[in-house]
Design goal:
This protein is mainly β. The chain has one domain: Beta-galactosidase, Chain A, domain 5, CATH 2.70.98.10. 2% of the residues lie in helices and 46% in strands. The protein contains one helix and 20 strands. The strands form three sheets. Strands 5, 10, 11, 13, 14, 15, 18 and 19 form an eight-stranded antiparallel beta sheet that branches. It has an eight-stranded antiparallel beta sheet with strand order 6-7-8-9-20-17-16-12, with no helix packed on it. The chain has a four-stranded antiparallel beta sheet with strand order 1-2-3-4, with no helix packed on it. The protein is globular and about 45 Å long.
Length: 283
């Protein structure tokens, strides 16, 4: 495949890193997991994604940071009767195949395909692709297509880690209504009007709100997020105590990121011949 001039590939151990530097932005993506881990728009030069300095990009572990793809289940929402399955599914630790890479005045367009979508807990026939556009905004589409002869259910998420300089000075806008709090026995609470994180946070907002903003107190650092195809917005940060238990998060770096996820947490049925698109755009 002939790549556009703005695209290069770097070898990292058994993994390949796709680097894009076009007129609109720069981006880096790992073919292991089809995971974007850097996106910097040219108009302001600010990194939108957080990547742990302790994570490995050589394919030896799932990457901590960027845009992990959770499929065909989210977290530990395993299929009924299943147990001892990998959290967040099994596609984030596979080497994806690049199907196409094209460029025009609007940006660079990638299509990646997962080579193996059938595994323990999901014995179905599905085609799973990721379409990525790198322009002044980053668009990620996770597309599930049922190519078999029976319906199947999925949950999924774009588990994006957003970079901040100090989380204590940031607010989240556009998320409203009630949420389930995983840190409080899955009880329901009302989303605060001034949404700011100050403790371990693991919340499922049953909301299909499309427009979200992550903004610091004076408005000088703002990340805009739009989402489609989701039934939930998940917000997560381990905070200090839990971060210490995670080997590839530096102890003090919990204040450097927040996960705002486009998610399907209520089982979605996809019948033969149909597809579903889970979309997140970042600017």
């Amino acid at each position: 495949m002939e790549l556009p001039q703005s695209v290069s590939i770097q070898q990292q151990g058994n993994n390949q890193i796709l680097c894009i530097d076009n007129q609109h932005a720069s981006m880096k993506l790992s073919l292991f997991g089809a995971q974007v881990f850097s996106f910097v728009p040219k108009h302001d030069g600010r990194e939108r994604l957080w990547l742990s300095p302790l994570t490995h990009l050589d394919g030896s572990e799932t990457i901590r940071g960027g845009t992990p793809l959770c499929w065909p289940w989210f977290a530990n929402q395993f299929p009924q009767g299943s147990s001892v399955l990998p959290a967040h599914g099994f596609v984030r630790n596979q080497y994806w195949q690049m199907i196409s890479c094209e460029e025009d005045t609007n940006g660079t367009h990638l299509v990646l395909e997962c080579p193996n979508t059938s595994a323990q807990g999901f014995p179905y026939s599905a085609k799973l692709t990721v379409e990525i556009t790198v322009s002044s905004e980053l668009e990620i589409k996770l597309i599930t297509e049922n190519i078999g002869d029976e319906a199947f259910n999925i949950t999924a998420a774009l588990h994006t880690y957003f970079a901040v300089d100090d989380l204590s000075s940031y607010f989240i806008y556009g998320v409203t209504g009630e949420y389930l709090d995983k840190t409080r026995a899955m009880n329901r609470f009302t989303t605060p009007s001034n949404y700011q994180l100050s403790e371990e946070t693991d919340r499922i907002h049953y909301s299909d709100s499309r427009a979200i903003a992550l903004c610091n107190h004076d408005g000088s650092q703002k990340t805009e997020i739009t989402q489609e195809g989701h039934d939930s917005i998940v917000i997560w940060n381990p905070w200090q105590e839990e971060a210490r238990k995670v080997s590839n998060i530096p102890d003090a770096d919990y204040v450097k990121f927040v996960c705002i996820e486009a998610a399907v947490t209520q089982e979605l049925s996809i019948v033969p011949g149909e597809q579903h698109q889970l979309i997140q755009r970042i600017s």
